[in-house]
Amino acid sequence: MKVDVLLGLQWGDEGKGKIVDVLTPQYDIIARFQGGPNAGHTLEFEGIKHVLHTIPSGIFRKNVLNVIGNGVVIDPVIFQKEIEKLAPFNIDIQKNLVISRRAHLILPTHRLLDAASEAAKGKNKIGSTLKGIGPTYMDKTGRNGLRVGDIFSPRFREKYQALVEKHIGILKHHEGFEYNLSELEPAFFEGINLLKSLTCIDSELFLNQELKAGKKVLAEGAQGTLLDIDFGSYPFVTSSNTITAGTCTGLGVAPTKIGSVIGIFKAYCTRVGSGPFPTELHDETGEEMRREGNEFGSTTGRPRRCGWIDLPALKYAIMINGVTELSMMKADVLSIFDTIKVCTHYEIEGKLYDYMPYDIEGIEIKPVYKELKGWKTDLTQLDDINSAPAELKEYISYLEAELEVPITVVSVGPDRKQTLKNLELSR
Ligand code: GDP
Ligand code: IMO
Ligand code: MG
C-alpha cells in the first residue's frame, strides 16, 4: 500500500484537522510528519470542539492508530496537557497512539530562545507562535538536539543539562531578556515521565511493515506550503518542510510509497504572523471575512489576516506538492458577499506574474482580480453538492479549470457532518 498525504496549500489553518477526522474511517493509521505545538488542528462533532497540537487528528476514531513521526518536535508540557484534555473521551492512548523515538524534544530553553530571538528582531519579527519550534529544529540540524529515545537513557539528565548550558550561554547575549528556568522545569520533567509511560517506537520501521501488510496510512501535515522552510515566503516561514517531500523525511517512507496527495485550501485566504500576503484586505471586507470565518488562531488566539483566494500561490503549492485532489474549505464563509474575487495574477512594476516571485517582501504587488457572482445563500445546512447554488458550482468549476486538479471535497461548516463530496470524483 501507499501513504496518502493531506496537507495545507496556504499559510496554515486551512482545516486540516477537520478533513483528517472526516477521512480517518478510510484508514488504519494517521501519521503526523512535521511541525509541533505551533499547529492547532480543530475538529468538531457532537457539539464539541477539540483542538489538537501534537496528537494526530485521527485520535477520536476507534480502531485507528495515530503515529507522531520522527519529523515532529514535541513539547512534553503541551503534550501532557493535550493528553489530559482527552481523558473524558474514553480514548485508549496506550493502544491508539505511538511516538517515534527519533522525534525531537522542545526544551523550556527552546521556548525562551524563541521569545528572545523574536524580541531581538523587533518589528521584523517572524510572528512565531513562541512554542520553541525554530530553536528546536536548529538544534536538530545543528546536531545538538535531544530526541524522545534519549529519555530512556540513564544519561538523559546529563544530556539535558549540557544542552541547557549551551542555551543559557546564548541567552546571555540577549541583554535585558529575563527568565526563570527553574519555574519551567518541573512541568517539563513531568511531561517526560508521561512520554516514558507511552509507546515509543522506531516508527519508520513500523510504518513500512504496516504498508507491506496492506494497511492504509494517511499522513497529516501541519502548517501550510507557503510556510515551508524551503518554498514558503522566507524568512516568514516555519522551520520544517511542510510539503509532500516532508512526509518522506518526517515518517521514513520512500517517495515511491506516496499515493494520493490531498491539498487543502480555504475558499479565500488567511495568514497569522508577519510576512507578505499579496491579497490581504485591510478594509471592511477583510473584517467581515474574519468575523464570519471566526478567523482567530487556534493556538495563539491572534486575529488572522484575511484576503481573497490567490491562484498564483495556489498553483505553486499544487506544483510543489504534486497534489492529486483538492478539498475546498469554508465555502459557507463567502455566502455573505455579493461578489467574490479571485486573484489570477500579480502586477509588479507594470509586469504580470502568474507565479510567486523569489522575493515578495517589501515590493509592491498589485493583485489582479477576476470577479465572480456570489451565491448569497446559507450553505451550512446543505447535504448534497448537487443542491448547491449555481454560483457556488461555477466557483468550483472555475477553480478546477484554473488549478487543473479536481476539488473532491467542499466544506460548508466546522462540523464533521458539514462536508460535501463533490460529484462522482469523490473518494
Ligand atoms: P488546521 O490548522 O488546518 O487544522 O485549521 P484550524 O483548525 O487551525 O482552523 C480552521 C478553523 O475553521 C477551525 O476553527 C475549524 O473549526 C473551522 N472550519 C473548518 N472547516 C470549516 C468550514 O467549512 N466552515 C467554517 N465556517 N469553519 C470551518
Ligand atoms: P496549523 O498546523 C498557521 C506561523 C506563525 C508564524 C510562522 C512561524 O494549525 O496550520 P513558528 O512558531 O512555526 O516558528 O512560526 O508560522 N505558523 C502557523 N500559522 N497555522 C499553523 O499551524 C502555524 N504554525 C506556525 O504564525 O507566522
Ligand atoms: Mg491551525
Structural commentary:
- With 427 residues, the chain is α/β, with parallel strands linked by helices.
- It is built from 12 helices and 20 strands.
- It has helices at residues 16-23, 76-86, 93-96, 108-121, 133-141, 156-171, 181-197, 203-212, 244-251, 284-293, 311-321, 390-403, and strands at residues 3-8, 29-32, 41-45, 48-52, 65-68, 73-74, 97-100, 104-105, 199-201, 217-220, 258-266, 269-271, 305-307, 309-310, 325-329, 339-348, 351-353, 366-373, 407-411, 419-421.
- The strands form 5 sheets. The protein has a 10-stranded mixed sheet with strand order 9-7-5-2-10-1-11-15-19-20, sandwiched between helices. Strands 14, 16, 17 and 18 form a 4-stranded mixed sheet that branches. It has a two-stranded antiparallel ribbon with strand order 3-4.
- A hairpin with a 2-residue loop joins strand 3 (41-45) and strand 4.
- Helix 2 packs across helix 7 (181-197), helix 4 packs across helix 5 (133-141) and helix 4 runs parallel beside helix 6.
- The longest helix is centred in the middle third of the chain and has 17 residues, at 181-197.
- It is globular, with a radius of gyration of 21 Å.
- 48% of the residues are buried.
Shape: globular
Uncertain segments are: none
Strand order of the largest sheet: 9-7-5-2-10-1-11-15-19-20
Ions, cofactors and other bound molecules: guanosine-5'-diphosphate, 6-O-phosphoryl inosine monophosphate, magnesium ion
User: Given the structure, what is the number of helices?
Assistant: 12
Q: Give the % helix.
A: 25-40%
Give me the oligomer status.
single chain
Largest sheet: 10 strands, mixed
Overall structural class, as computed from helix and strand content, comes to alpha/beta
- Averaged pLDDT: 96
Kindly provide the radius of gyration, computed on alpha-carbon positions and rounded to a whole number of angstroms: 21 Å
Strand content: 15-25%
| E-strand count | 20
* First-last Cα distance: 17 Å
